[in-house]
Write a structure and sequence with these properties.
This protein has one domain (about 5-135): 2,3-Dihydroxybiphenyl 1,2-Dioxygenase, domain 1. It has three helices and eight strands; from the N terminus they run βαβββαβαβββ. The protein has helices at about 15-25, 65-75, 90-100, and strands at about 5-10, 30-35, 40-45, 55, 85, 105-110, 115-120, 125-135. Strand 7 (about 115-120) and strand 8 (about 125-135) form a beta hairpin.
């Protein structure tokens, strides 16, 4: 039986720019940054939560052929690769802090039946929601 999810991949076009955004603006921490020779293994996590990581992967070998990588990059920049949802204890405060850092949102904090949430896209087109769940 499964006991959890440890790593989720989010495709990015540039890992340095991804670090600037996910670490520098969103406040995640780098957990692993390893040059494997054939690829760079880069994961981040919420502060103090290294058991649940996001793998910031550039489309390409060894996961993708050149043709598939091009298709993934195209879908990525169109925002067509799904959404990642982050949780917070204070959606409005997180929105304000990130807005002050220059993060552009696609939706402001809104009351929903499940809590308060807002939305943005990362520099590559990935759709991100930030949710403050109802207690």
């Amino acid at each position: 039986m499964f006991t959890g999810i440890s790593i989720h991949t989010v495709f990015v076009l540039d890992q340095e720019e991804a670090i600037d955004f996910y670490v520098g603006k969103l406040g995640f921490e780098v957990v692993e940054d390893v040059d494997l020779g054939f690829m760079r293994w880069l994961t981040v996590s919420a502060p103090g939560k290294p058991d649940r990581r996001i793998h910031l992967e550039v489309p390409g070998p060894p996961s993708h052929s050149d043709e598939t990588a091009a298709a993934v990059r195209d879908l990525l920049t169109k925002g067509a690769l799904g959404a990642t949802i982050f949780t917070t204890d204070d959606c409005r405060g997180t929105f304000k802090r990130l807005s002050d850092l220059g993060v552009e949102f696609t939706e402001e904090p809104t009351e929903q039946p499940y809590g308060i949430d807002c939305a943005l896209r990362d520099p590559f087109g990935n759709h991100i929601r930030i949710t403050q769940p109802t207690a």
